[in-house]
User: Fold this.
Amino acid sequence: MNFWAYLAKRLLHAIPVYIGISIVIFSLIHLIPGDPAQAVLGDAATPEAIQSLREQWNLNEPLWEQFLIWFFNVLQGDLGRSLHTNQPVSEIIASRLPVTLTLTVSALVFSLIIALPVGILSAIKRNTIMDHVSRVIALLGISIPNFWLGLVFIIVFGVYLRWLPPGGFHFNKGFMPGVLSLILPAVSLGAFFAAISMRMVRSSMLEVMRKEYIETARAKGLAEQWVIRRHAIKNAFIPVITVIGLQTGTLLAGAVLTETIFFMPGIGRELITAMAKRDFPIIQGLILFFATVYVGINILVDLSYAFLNPKIEYS
Assistant:
């Protein structure tokens, strides 16, 4: 099977997954207690006004009918409008997305800068002091919740030491203020991912370095650095790429808490605000966006395998 046939097959497989995700998202959101019409109009609203708004938003229709209306609108690119501001959800996502993407990419870059060299060195220098220290650090990174780490960073580096801004997204004040405002949230968000990736890189490297072709390369008299660079690292990265792809989606979802803690105007904080206001169209649109990104990243990860190892065939 060639690349394009495999891509078409994966996209076709994504359709039922996408429909299933849409049904789950819509059903779970409508299980949230509270009437959105009441939430928008307030406690002083008359029953007639609430009823009128419910009819306007099709909230009196059966749930399956509401889903079909929403789903066919989504297929046409219409994610609905905010119940509170009447702003199109697609515009809200587009305006908030740059902040979230900047945060997510920064956290990913930070975690890979830490995880890849430390994981490789930890495997090469197995059972040394460096290996033991890196494993303890990785365990701490996995055990500590990123929201707690973010709060500690704000208190220590933002409030007491005043080295970095404790919150906000300051790229509107210039490049350097923006970069400085990004350090604490990116590190707190990327710490968990760095720890997971570090352990994955280490274990994958150890497994590859026990393969016969590595021993054969050594037996041919190749230098150890050449064997590691040329044969071990490239093959060890295949399972690591899988973890990176999966964790990238997790990073995007983790941005919800990080943006809220650091008061960053991204789609994660918008999601929390929408949930507090019971703004269903925004919640549905944002979660669907997260799911779309997650499915897309997984397809890209699968496609990347053959680039890393030409012996892998699309099937």
